[in-house]
UniProtKB/TrEMBL annotation:
GO terms for molecular function: chloride channel activity. Residues 467-479 have a biased composition (Pro residues). One of its GO terms (cellular component) is chloride channel complex. Keywords: Chloride, Chloride channel, Ion channel, Ion transport, Membrane, Transmembrane, Transmembrane helix, Transport. The keyword Flavoprotein does not apply. Its main location: membrane. It is found in: Membrane. This is Chloride channel protein. The keyword Membrane applies.
Length: 479
């Protein structure tokens, strides 16, 4: 038939043009470099968190001075040298995909320089003792490395900048969490609503290459270990439903707080942040330091150790309101302006919330509810339920809980949509609005370094001006 593929013709075209293979080697090499960059960043970030905990163990009240000073220094350095390295990571990668941005504006968000600055800034934030994670920044770091491959590709390769960014972002998630399926679904659900055949092949190849580097460095292990669930009875239905609703409400509130805080209201705190960002960062650092002292440094970083303790069935020695304290510490850490991820803190908040619900309603199903809480809160924060479900399923080896994780993530995401707009997409839209080409002569770096103008208040936007009376007719001239 005429529509059948010409096998011999395809072979001849592959052999006749060696540049095709050179382009493929370039893409594969940069995918390996993207995975290696995430591995090195992981080691750097973990070292920063461990150094802070060691310092905290030496003198408990040391963070009251150390955390504000280092937080202010990181914010100053980021604003001064690499404003594009700010934020959590996924919104910056999502904004870079927008076709309205030119090459210069896109390079202000994803490049080798930005990747290096991001890694150093997150290291500084973890060294300061803030409640941030490293998985979200891994998306922007890997995307910046993969985006650099465009300089070495031939015009005939047909590989666009968008495809490189999607592949790098997916590889970053896959390597950071050791969840290849999670990386694929994240790219489809969050970064690219539609993927062409060539794009999907490039993305899969990048994930495989980056995943091989991560597995070679850390082993093929589940991020939070393996949970053992023999049987789930109907007794978990009511606690699970309560947990899904709670995750949806709190996750939506968390996303809404971040949107309002980062792109500002007209309250006095936002006004002070716009006028004095360095002082505001120091104040946020001081508040987080107090929370760290109260929680004995368990709220520092992403909180992986706390989550592993809960999944192991142990009861950590933490304050009763630990979930609320971690919630506030993560919000303040993001509001301070220090670059840092939200994935792992959200998973930890969800795990702690599931543990709280289990203590109140169903202690015998604690492990199940902890895993459901992780998926539910992450889905509510990102409003990407499929990604949240698959990431949690792979991280805890919870394949026996697929239906439960899916149901909790979908319900929590639905409730969150009633409370807040999508967090990452909203932040990305704000970044694109600031970086889109305009008539000004400012560079993209200067536009990013400037504080965001306050959004108009709803009252000002809906107030109808009072009707004015028509002008009086002119008086007739006197005779």
């Amino acid at each position: 038939m005429k529509d059948d593929p010409d096998f011999l013709g395809q072979v001849r075209s592959e052999v006749a043009d060696p540049r095709i293979w050179i382009d493929r080697i370039v893409v594969g090499l940069f995918a390996l470099l993207a995975g290696l960059s995430v591995v090195l960043f992981t080691l750097l970030a973990d070292a920063g968190e461990q150094i802070f905990k060691a310092m905290h163990g030496g003198w408990r009240f040391w963070p009251l001075l150390w955390t504000p000073l280092l937080t202010a220094l990181v914010v100053w350095a980021t604003m001064r040298f690499a404003p594009g390295a700010g934020g959590s990571g996924p919104p910056q990668a999502l904004a870079a995909l927008d076709p309205r941005l030119d090459a210069q504006a896109r390079s202000a968000l994803v490049s080798l320089k930005i990747s290096l600055a991001k890694a150093l800034a997150v290291f500084g934030g973890l060294l300061a003792g803030l409640s941030i994670g490293r998985q979200g920044p891994s998306v922007q770091i890997a995307a910046g490395v993969m985006y650099a491959a465009r300089r070495f590709l031939s015009p005939r390769s047909g590989i666009s900048a968008r495809e490189l960014l999607v592949a790098g972002s997916a590889a970053g998630i896959a390597a950071a969490f050791n969840t290849p399926l999670g990386g694929i679904v994240f790219a489809i659900e969050e970064l690219s609503r539609r993927l062409e055949t060539r794009s999907s092949g490039l993305m899969l190849g990048a994930i495989v290459m980056a995943g091989l580097v991560a597995v070679a460095a850390f082993g093929n292990l589940s991020y939070f270990g393996r949970i053992r669930i023999e049987r789930v009875s109907w007794g978990v239905l009511l606690p699970g439903l309560t947990l899904a609703l709670a995750c949806g409400l709190l996750g939506g509130l968390f996303a809404r707080l971040l949107i309002v805080s980062l792109f500002g209201g007209r309250d006095r705190f936002s006004a002070f942040r716009r006028r004095h960002p360095i002082r505001f960062a120091a104040a946020c650092g001081l508040a987080v330091a107090v929370i760290g002292i109260v929680t004995q440094a368990s709220a520092v970083g992403g909180g992986q150790a706390h989550t592993r303790t809960l999944l192991a069935g142990e009861s950590p020695d933490v304050p009763l309101l630990w979930t609320l304290l971690k919630f506030v510490a993560t919000w303040l850490s993001a509001w301070s302006g220090v670059p840092g991820g939200l994935f792992t803190p959200s998973l930890t908040i969800g795990a702690s919330l599931g543990h709280d619900v289990a203590l109140l309603l169903s202690p015998e199903h604690a492990t199940v509810l902890i895993a459901l809480g992780m998926a539910g809160f992450l889905a509510a924060m990102t409003q990407t339920p499929i990604t949240a479900m698959i990431i949690v399923m792979e991280m805890v080896d919870g394949y026996a809980m697929v239906l439960g994780l899916m149901s909790c993530a979908l319900l929590a995401s639905l409730v969150s949509r009633m409370v807040s707009r999508p967090l990452y997409a909203t932040i990305a839209d704000q970044l694109v609005a600031r970086l889109a080409p305009d008539a000004s002569a400012r560079t993209p770096e200067q536009q990013l370094a400037e504080p965001a103008p306050p959004a108009p208040s709803p009252a000002a936007a809906t107030t109808v001006p009072a009707p004015t009376s028509p002008p009086a007719p002119p008086e007739a001239p006197r005779p």
